[in-house]
């Protein structure tokens, strides 16, 4: 009889557990998490806590809320206290942000000829906690649930799927297939609507469009660009995970994802450099 693998707390699962999209977009915790991923993790030395608070207030967060959020992120091991009231980004969190950067800043969409990755596994009832963990991580990777124990992903997500299974100590329990073209039971659009919650994903894209409706490409003042850029990244960062980037032929005609991706890329190109200049001025103070 096969025993359920034990989920360790200090093994590679830890950086995956940090990929948490439950924090409310625009909240102090979410904003400082975004600032950490954008800027703090790239600093060669720990950053004074006062400067992190200054960056948070420049992004529209009160100083009191920033202090509370920093403490929460320390508890979540996204930040770490160091000597002299400074803050550092622990190695596991750095790995998470590095992995996230590939998704966030290079959003992908499948072409009709791209391959797919199918993942199948069968776990007994005694492994229910592991089934829950796999489901949670696969959903956050943009997987579609075809049937119990059978998931589908764009093939370009296979490496991340493989890493998630390994981190959950479940790689030996799953088989991955690379396939060229599924033969859908009905239309590709109907299959996508069954395997993914497209209504929810479309609503997330609409929320992003609403949250960024007031952005102005003429905001090139470093402080204004910084605030707009941080807010935009914070509103966007979960979308490239949850949305796998299905081909146009599987999406509804009124799909909001195309407009949100275009807006993200447009304003990223405008705001990134002046925002970085603003951060450099704060950290040099």
Automatic annotation (TrEMBL):
Q: Which residues form the Transcriptional repressor PaaX-like C-terminal domain?
A: 196-280
Q: Give the record's GO biological process terms.
A: DNA-templated transcription
Domain of life of the source: Bacteria
Q: What's the short name of a Pfam family annotated to this entry?
A: PaaX
InterPro entries per UniProt: PaaX-like_central (IPR048846), PaaX-like_N (IPR012906), PaaX_C (IPR013225), PaaX_trns_reg (IPR011965), WH-like_DNA-bd_sf (IPR036388)
Which residue intervals define the domain Transcriptional repressor PaaX-like N-terminal in the entry?
28-79
From the UniProt record, list the coiled-coil ranges: none
Give the Transcriptional repressor PaaX-like central Cas2-like domain ranges. Answer: 112-187
| Alphabetical list of PANTHER family matching this protein | PHENYLACETIC ACID REGULATOR-RELATED TRANSCRIPTIONAL REPRESSOR, TRANSCRIPTIONAL REPRESSOR PAAX
**Mind telling me what this protein is named?**
Regulator
Which species does this protein come from?
Glutamicibacter mishrai
């Amino acid at each position: 009889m096969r025993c359920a693998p034990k989920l360790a707390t200090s093994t590679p699962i830890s950086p995956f557990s940090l990929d948490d999209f439950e924090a409310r977009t625009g909240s102090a915790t979410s904003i400082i998490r975004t600032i950490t991923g954008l800027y703090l993790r790239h600093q060669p030395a720990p950053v004074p806590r006062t400067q992190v608070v200054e960056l948070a207030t420049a992004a529209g967060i009160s100083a009191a809320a920033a202090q509370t959020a920093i403490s929460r992120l320390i508890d979540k091991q996204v930040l770490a206290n160091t000597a002299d009231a400074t803050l550092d980004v622990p190695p596991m969190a750095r790995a998470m942000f590095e992995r996230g950067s590939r998704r966030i800043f290079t959003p992908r969409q499948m072409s009709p000829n791209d391959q797919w990755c199918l993942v199948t596994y069968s776990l007994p009832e005694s492994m229910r906690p592991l089934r829950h963990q796999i489901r949670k991580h696969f959903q956050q990777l943009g997987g579609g649930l075809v049937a119990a124990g059978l998931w589908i992903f764009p093939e370009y997500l296979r490496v991340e799927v493989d890493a998630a299974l390994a981190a959950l100590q479940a790689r030996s329990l799953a088989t991955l297939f690379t396939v060229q073209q599924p033969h859908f039971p009905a239309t590709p659009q109907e299959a996508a609507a069954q395997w993914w919650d497209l209504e929810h994903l479309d609503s997330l894209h609409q929320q992003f469009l609403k949250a960024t409706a007031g952005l102005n490409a003429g905001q090139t003042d470093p402080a204004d660009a910084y605030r707009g850029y941080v807010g935009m990244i914070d509103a966007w960062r979960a979308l490239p995970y949850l949305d796998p980037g299905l081909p146009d032929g599987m999406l509804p005609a009124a799909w909001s994802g195309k407009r949100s991706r275009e807006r993200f890329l447009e304003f990223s190109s405008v705001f990134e450099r002046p925002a970085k200049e603003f951060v450099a001025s704060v950290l040099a103070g």
